[in-house]
């Protein structure tokens, strides 16, 4: 559609109809599975308020940590900013976000 420039031809009302959302957001759920030769662990993160809520809340947590940190300005991943389980606990403290772990 982009190649034939369909979206430049469509009026704004049709673009809104195609790309609109109900604003409620869907639940988001993802699993992280870590497996070694004799060990397996699964971490599940679920946010009943949707992906946008999880992303926004995570961003706020990272910004707060950066502002409290003595680190220089730059690019950081969350594991460089937060202590081991602090980020886990902060995410888990938010209503609607559930984190569960399973050992296999």
Q: What is the structure about, briefly put?
A:
The chain is of the alpha+beta class and 104 residues long. The protein has one domain (22-103). The protein has 5 helices and 3 strands, in the order ααββαααβ.
Written overview of the protein:
- It is a single chain.
- By secondary structure, the chain is α+β, with helices and mostly antiparallel strands.
- The chain has a three-stranded antiparallel β-sheet.
- The longest helix has 18 residues, at 51-68.
- The protein starts with 5 loop residues before the first helix and ends with a strand.
- It has one domain (22-103).
- The chain contains five helices and three strands.
Give the radius of gyration: 19 Å
What does the average pLDDT come to?
79
Residue stretches low in confidence (pLDDT < 50, at least 5 long) are none
| Major beta sheet summary | 3 strands, antiparallel
Specify the structural class: alpha+beta
Q: Order of strands across the widest beta sheet? A: 1-2-3
So what's the oligomer here?
single chain
Tally the structural domains.
1
- Estimated share of beta-strand residues: 15-25%
Helix content: 40-55%
Distance between the termini: 45 Å
Which outline best applies? extended
What is the count of β-strands? 3
Count every helix, treating DSSP H or I runs of 4 or more residues as helices. 5
Instruction: Note the run of SSEs as H and E.
Output: HHEEHHHE
């Amino acid at each position: 559609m982009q190649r034939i420039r369909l979206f430049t031809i469509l009026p704004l009302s049709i673009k809104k109809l195609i790309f609109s959302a109900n604003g409620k957001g869907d639940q988001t759920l993802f699993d992280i599975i870590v497996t070694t030769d004799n060990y397996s662990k699964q971490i599940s993160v679920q946010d009943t308020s949707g992906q946008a809520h999880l992303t926004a809340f995570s961003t706020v947590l990272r910004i707060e940590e950066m502002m409290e940190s003595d680190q220089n300005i730059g690019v950081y991943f969350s594991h460089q900013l937060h202590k081991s389980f602090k980020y886990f606990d902060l995410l888990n403290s938010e209503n609607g976000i559930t984190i569960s772990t399973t050992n296999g």
